[in-house]
C-alpha cells in the first residue's frame, strides 16, 4: 500500500508510493455517491439486487460467447470481480468462472454491498501503476474523488474494465465513446437533466498524470517511516498549512540572497496541543534536488540561544525569589573564569527582571541561573519534556541559559504551548501536562493521553513570564527592533545562537503558538542573522493570518496583592517613597524588602551626609534616599539620568565610611582571575582596570604591587600590563581612603 497523509479535514497532504511501485491507496472510509452510480451503471446494473451472481447476464454472456466461438463477455458481477481480484488470477476459463460464482455468493453472505463495492473500488486497476479510485482521482484530476464532475467520475468508472484506454493515442477516442455512452445511460436513468448531460459530454479527457500533492513533505516522510502503507489522518490544518508554506517560501527568497538557506515553522493549537502547521524546511516545492531542504528542521537539535530564559524567570517568579519589576544586576561579571557578555556589550547596572527578560540580557540571566541552581533548572527543563537536554549540570554549566543546550523547534514550541494551556485551563481542569508532547496523529478517545497532574510551573508564574514577553514592553531603541503591524497581544521570545547559527522566534497567545527557526541546516552561521531580524518577522506574518485572541485572564485566585517599591520593584520597605499594589505569585510574599531605599542622615544644609561621629543626632535631618552600591550606580546612572547620588560625606565624618570607592573591573572576589585580552593581530593588549568613586572628581592614585602606576580623575580607568601570575593593586583617593585587590593574571584562553 502507498502511505497516504491527510489533513484533519480529510484533504490529501501527500502520499508515498507503495513498495511494489503501485499508487495503491489504503481503502477509503466512504465512496462518492457519483462514483457508486457510475460504476454500478457501467459494470453491474443490478449490483444492489443480486446475490452476487446475476443469472440473466451470465446467460446473455454465455449466449454471446457461443455465437462468437470464444469468450467476449464475462457477464461477471462486481462481486465476482472482487472474488477474482482476491484470488489473484486472471484466467477466464469455465472452471475459474464457476469458482468465482461460488466465492462471490460467499462474499455476499459475509460482507455488505457497500463493503464489497469499496473493496472493488480500492483495488481496481485504473491504468499504469494507479490502483484504486482515490489514487486515480488525484493522479488524473489532482483532486479528491469526492470533488469530481459527472464526466470525470464516468471516465474513471469505465477504466477498471479497460485500464489501458487511459494512455494517450488511438485509445482516447474509444475511452471518450465509452464515457459518453455511460453518461447517456445515466441521463436515461434520470440521474441528471439534459443540460447537465450535454455539458458533461463536452468535457475533455484528462491529458496528463499529475504529481500528488506534497503539502507538508517532511511530515509525510516521517509518517511514511512510522506508519508505512497506512491512511493517516493528521492534526494539520490544510488551509493554514498551505498559507504558511507560501509565507515561508516568500521569505526564503530574501534569506537565500544572504546565504541563509533554510527555515522552518510549526504552529500549535494551545487547547489540544495539536500541530496545525508543520513546515519542516523551505524550498522543497520548487527545488526537488537540493539536499539541505530535505532536512526536517522541526525535529533537528539546534542551539537554543536565549529561548530557554522565560522558563528560568517563570521558575524564579514561582518561588518568589524574583518579582517581575525587581532590579537585577547587570554589571561586568566573571564567574569561575567564565565571562558572559550582553549582546550589545553594554551594562545597565541594575535592570527590572521583566525588562532583562524582554531584552534578553545575558548577564542577569547567568546570575539568576546561579541563584536558582543549574541542577534545578535542568530538572525543570526535563519536566518540560526537553528530551535533547540530557547532559549533566556540570557539563552544561551556566551556558545552559545562553544556548549551551540543544533543543528542537517542536519541543520548544510545545513547552510554550503547554504553559499557555496550563494558564487557560488550571481553573476548570486543574493542572494537566498530559499532552506536553504534541502529536500530529489525530487522536481518538482510546489513544488520548491520560492527564498528568504534575504541577511544573504555577499559572501565576507563567502569567508573569508571558506578561514580561509582551511586545509593549520591548524598548523601541533595541537593535534591529521595529514595530510590527500586529494589534494583538503576543508574548514572544527570540533567540540567536553563538556564531549566528540559529535564529529563533517563538510567540504565544491563549490560542496559538507559532515557532520559527531560520538558519543553515549544515550549521553555517551568517553574521547579523538574529532571531529578531530574521525569524520574528516571519512569526508575526503568521500571527497576522491567525484569528485574533484576547489576552490571558490574570490568575488572581493563585496570587497575592502586595505593595511594591516603585523604584526597585522589591516589596516596599519602610523607607520606600512611591509604591504601588500588584498581584504577584503566592510565594512573592516571602521575597525580601527593598534594600535600596535607605534613611540618610544629612546635616542642616542637606548638602552632606553625616554620622554620629561628627554630628549631634538632634542636628541630623533624616531623608529616605534611593541609594545604589557604587558598582551598580556607575552603570545605572548612564541609563537612568534621573538617578541622584546621595550627598557626599562631610569631610570630618570619613572614619566610619564604607563603600566610597569600589572595583568595577575586575569584580573583586576571593580569587579574582583576569585574562589578558588579545588584539586582532594576536598581540596581548593591556588590561583596563576600573574603579568607581562616589565623588567622580576626586583624584585617585593607583599602585601596582606597591609601585605607583598613575592617577585618574573623573573617569577612573587605568590600563596596566601586569605579567602572568599573582599581583596586588592598591588604590588611594585624595582623602586617604584605600582599597585593595589581590588578583591573578592568566593568559588568554586559546
Ligand atoms: Zn524601595
Describe the structure.
The structure is a single chain. With 750 residues, the protein is of the alpha+beta class. Helix 8 runs antiparallel to helix 9. The protein is built from 20 helices and 26 strands. The protein is elongated and about 135 Å long. It has a five-stranded antiparallel sheet, with helices on both faces. Strands 20-26-25-22-23 form a five-stranded mixed sheet, with no helix packed on it. Bound molecules: zinc ion. Zinc ion binds at residues 565, 567-568, 573, 576, 594, 596-597.
Descriptive tags:
750 residues, five-stranded mixed beta sheet, 26 strands, binds zinc ion
Q: Report the radius of gyration as a whole number of Å.
A: 37 Å
Task: Output the structural class.
Answer: alpha+beta
Number of helical stretches of at least 4 residues: 20
Ligands: zinc ion
Distance between the termini: 57 Å
According to DSSP, the number of beta strands is 26
Largest β-sheet summary: 5 strands, antiparallel
Measured as a percent range, the helix fraction is 25-40%
- Spans of at least 5 consecutive residues with low confidence: 472-482
Overall average residue pLDDT: 85
Walk across the major sheet and give the strand order.
7-6-14-13-12
Give the CA-based shape. elongated
Strand content: 15-25%
Secondary structure blueprint with pairings:
Blueprint lengths: L2 E4 L5 E5 L6 E2 L8 H11 L11 H14 L9 H10 L6 H17 L2 H11 L6 E2 L1 H9 L8 H9 L12 H18 L5 H9 L14 H10 L4 E3 L4 H20 L4 E8 L5 E5 L22 E2 L5 H11 L7 E4 L18 E4 H6 L3 H11 L1 H10 L9 H4 L9 E2 L1 H21 L29 H10 L22 E6 L5 E7 L3 E8 L11 H15 L13 E7 L13 E7 L11 E6 L18 E6 L3 H10 L21 E5 L6 E4 L11 E7 L5 E6 L2 E7 L3 E4 L4 E9 L4 E9 L4
Parallel strand pairs: 1-5, 3-4, 20-26
Antiparallel strand pairs: 1-2, 6-7, 6-14, 8-11, 9-10, 12-13, 13-14, 15-16, 17-18, 19-21, 21-24, 22-23, 22-25, 25-26
Helix pairs in contact: 1-7, 1-8, 3-4, 3-5, 7-8, 8-9, 11-19, 12-14, 12-18, 17-18
The structure holds zinc ion.
Zinc ion binds next to loops.
Amino acid at each position: 500500500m502507498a502511505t497516504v497523509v491527510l489533513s484533519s479535514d480529510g484533504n490529501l497532504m501527500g502520499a508515498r508510493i507503495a513498495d511494489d511501485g503501485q499508487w495503491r491507496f489504503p481503502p477509503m472510509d466512504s465512496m462518492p455517491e457519483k462514483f457508486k452510480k457510475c460504476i454500478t451503471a457501467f459494470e453491474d446494473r443490478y449490483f444492489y439486487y443480486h446475490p452476487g451472481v446475476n443469472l440473466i447476464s451470465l446467460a446473455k454472456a454465455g449466449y454471446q460467447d457461443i455465437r462468437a466461438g470464444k469468450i467476449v463477455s464475462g457477464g461477471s458481477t462486481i462481486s465476482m470481480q472482487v472474488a477474482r481480484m482476491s484470488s489473484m488470477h486472471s484466467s477466464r476459463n469455465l472452471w475459474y468462472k464457476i469458482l468465482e460464482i461460488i466465492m462471490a455468493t460467499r462474499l455476499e453472505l459475509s460482507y455488505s454491498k457497500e463493503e464489497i463495492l469499496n473493496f472493488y473500488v480500492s483495488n481496481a486497476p485504473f491504468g499504469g501503476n494507479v490502483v484504486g479510485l482515490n489514487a486515480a482521482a488525484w493522479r488524473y484530476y489532482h483532486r479528491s474523488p469526492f470533488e469530481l464532475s459527472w464526466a470525470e467520475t464516468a471516465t474513471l468508472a469505465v477504466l477498471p474494465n479497460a485500464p489501458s484506454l487511459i494512455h494517450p493515442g488511438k485509445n482516447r477516442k474509444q475511452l471518450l465513446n465509452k464515457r459518453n455512452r455511460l453518461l447517456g445511460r445515466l441521463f436515461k436513468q434520470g440521474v441528471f437533466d439534459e443540460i447537465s448531460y450535454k455539458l458533461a459530454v463536452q468535457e475533455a479527457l484528462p491529458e496528463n498524470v499529475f504529481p500528488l500533492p506534497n503539502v507538508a513533505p517532511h511530515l509525510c516522510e516521517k509518517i511514511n517511516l512510522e506508519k508505512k502503507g497506512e491512511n493517516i489522518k493528521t492534526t494539520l490544518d490544510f488551509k493554514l498549512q498551505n498559507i504558511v508554506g507560501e509565507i515561508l517560501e516568500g521569505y526564503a527568497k530574501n534569506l537565500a540572497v544572504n546565504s541563509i538557506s533554510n527555515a522552518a515553522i510549526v504552529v500549535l493549537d494551545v487547547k489540544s496541543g495539536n500541530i496545525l502547521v508543520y513546515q519542516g524546511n523551505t524550498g522543497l516545492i520548487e527545488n526537488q534536488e537540493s539536499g539541505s531542504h530535505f532536512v526536517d528542521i522541526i525535529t533537528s537539535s539546534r542551539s537554543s540561544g536565549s529561548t530557554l530564559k522565560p522558563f528560568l524567570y517563570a521558575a524564579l517568579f514561582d518561588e518568589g525569589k524574583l518579582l517581575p519589576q525587581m532590579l537585577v544586576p547587570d554589571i561586568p561579571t566573571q564567574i569561575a573564569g567564565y565571562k558572559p557578555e550582553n549582546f550589545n556589550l553594554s551594562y545597565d547596572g541594575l535592570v527590572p527582571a521583566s525588562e532583562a527578560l524582554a531584552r534578553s540580557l545575558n548577564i542577569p540571566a547567568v546570575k539568576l541561573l546561579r541563584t536558582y541552581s543549574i541542577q534545578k533548572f535542568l530538572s525543570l527543563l526535563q519536566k518540560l519534556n526537553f528530551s535533547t537536554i540530557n547532559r549533566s549540570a556540570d557539563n552544561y554549566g551556566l551556558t545552559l541559559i545562553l544556548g549551551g543546550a540543544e533543543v528542537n523547534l517542536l519541543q520548544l514550541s510545545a513547552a510554550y504551548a503547554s504553559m499557555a494551556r496550563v494558564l487557560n485551563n488550571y481553573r476548570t481542569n486543574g493542572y494537566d501536562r498530559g499532552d506536553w508532547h504534541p502529536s500530529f496523529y489525530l487522536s481518538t478517545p482510546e489513544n488520548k493521553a491520560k492527564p498528568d497532574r504534575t504541577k511544573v510551573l504555577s499559572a501565576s508564574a507563567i502569567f508573569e513570564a508571558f506578561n514580561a514577553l509582551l511586545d509593549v514592553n520591548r524598548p523601541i531603541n533595541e537593535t534591529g527592533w521595529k514595530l510590527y503591524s500586529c494589534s494583538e497581544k503576543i508574548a514572544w521570545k527570540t533567540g540567536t545562537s553563538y556564531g549566528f547559527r540559529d535564529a529563533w522566534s517563538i510567540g504565544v497567545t491563549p490560542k496559538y503558538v507559532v515557532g520559527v527557526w531560520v538558519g543553515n541546516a549544515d550549521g553555517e552561521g551568517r553574521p547579523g542573522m538574529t532571531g529578531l531580524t530574521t525569524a520574528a518577522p516571519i512569526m508575526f506574518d503568521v500571527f497576522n493570518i491567525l484569528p485574533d485572541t484576547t489576552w490571558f485572564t490574570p490568575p488572581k485566585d493563585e496570587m497575592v496583592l502586595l505593595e511594591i517599591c516603585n523604584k526597585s520593584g522589591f516589596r516596599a520597605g519602610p523607607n520606600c517613597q512611591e509604591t504601588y499594589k500588584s498581584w504577584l505569585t503566592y510565594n512573592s510574599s516571602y521575597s525580601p524588602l527593598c534594600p535600596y531605599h535607605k534613611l540618610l542622615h544629612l546635616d542642616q544644609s542637606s548638602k552632606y551626609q553625616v554620622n554620629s561621629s561628627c554630628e549631634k543626632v538632634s542636628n541630623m535631618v533624616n531623608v529616605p534616599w534611593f541609594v545604589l552600591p557604587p558598582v551598580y550606580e556607575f552603570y545605572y546612572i548612564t541609563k537612568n539620568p534621573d538617578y541622584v547620588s546621595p550627598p557626599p560625606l562631610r569631610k570630618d565624618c570619613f572614619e566610619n565610611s564604607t563603600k566610597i570607592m569600589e572595583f568595577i573591573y575586575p569584580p573583586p572576589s576571593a580569587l579574582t582571575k583576569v585574562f589578558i585580552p588579545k588584539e586582532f593581530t594576536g598581540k596581548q593588549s593591556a588590561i583596563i582596570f576600573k574603579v568607581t568613586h562616589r565623588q567622580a572628581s576626586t583624584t585617585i592614585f593607583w599602585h601596582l604591587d606597591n609601585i605607583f602606576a598613575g592617577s585618574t580623575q573623573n573617569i577612573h580607568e587605568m590600563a596596566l600590563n601586569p605579567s602572568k601570575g599573582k599581583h596586588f593593586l592598591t588604590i588611594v583617593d585624595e582623602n586617604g581612603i584605600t582599597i585593595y585587590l589581590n588578583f591573578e593574571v592568566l593568559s588568554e584562553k586559546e
